[in-house]
Design goal:
Aminopeptidase; Acyl_CoA_acyltransferase; acyltransferase activity, transferring groups other than amino-acyl groups; alpha+beta; transferase; about 160 residues; globular; 7 strands; about 35% strand; disordered C terminus; 5 helices
């Protein structure tokens, strides 16, 4: 059985926000680590129809956001349930998410941003075809951190 993407419910958002906690340096990704991000994640009006709960056999295994940025670009964000990370599931999870975004939005470019310390994720994104674009500093989680913007470009000819 494959992953299922559905608009996130309030119950799912609260479960992810308060029950999912990552180990070690990855605790950076706990929803409660940044109160502004937490408030936005829990606000159903701000989530709208761009935040999806990802289930497998009716089990909540992740979340995936897709935000249209201009006509041809979709910016994505996502997370897997903490007990599933680092176990080799990321490739299929993200590949399925990319297929979902392509089917729904038909973008020419998909972008994402990742903390530069997360080399495990960066390696996965490169394996899936994402390219490094630029680094930037961002205030989050009570400090300033370096992030890497990456993009996945497809559907363009050499003349475009």
């Amino acid at each position: 059985m494959t992953y299922q993407f559905d608009v996130m419910t309030q119950e799912q958002a609260e479960h992810i926000a308060y029950k999912w906690h990552y180990d070690g340096i990855y605790s950076f990704y706990d929803m409660e680590a940044d109160q502004e991000d937490l408030a936005e994640f829990l606000d159903s009006n701000k989530r709208g129809y761009s935040m999806f709960a990802v289930t497998k056999e009716n089990d909540l295994v992740g979340f995936f956001s897709a935000n249209q940025v201009g006509e041809d670009n979709v910016d994505i964000g996502f997370g897997m349930r903490p007990d599933l990370t680092g176990r080799g599931y990321g490739y299929h999870f993200l590949q399925t998410g990319l297929e979902f975004v392509i089917e729904i939005y038909h973008p020419k470019i998909i972008t994402l941003s990742v903390a530069t310390f997360n080399q495990r994720a960066i390696k996965l994104y490169k394996k899936l075809g994402f390219k490094e674009v630029q680094t930037f500093m961002q205030n989050t989680n009570g400090g300033e951190y370096e992030f890497l913007k990456m993009d996945y470009t497809f559907g363009l000819t050499e003349n475009e």
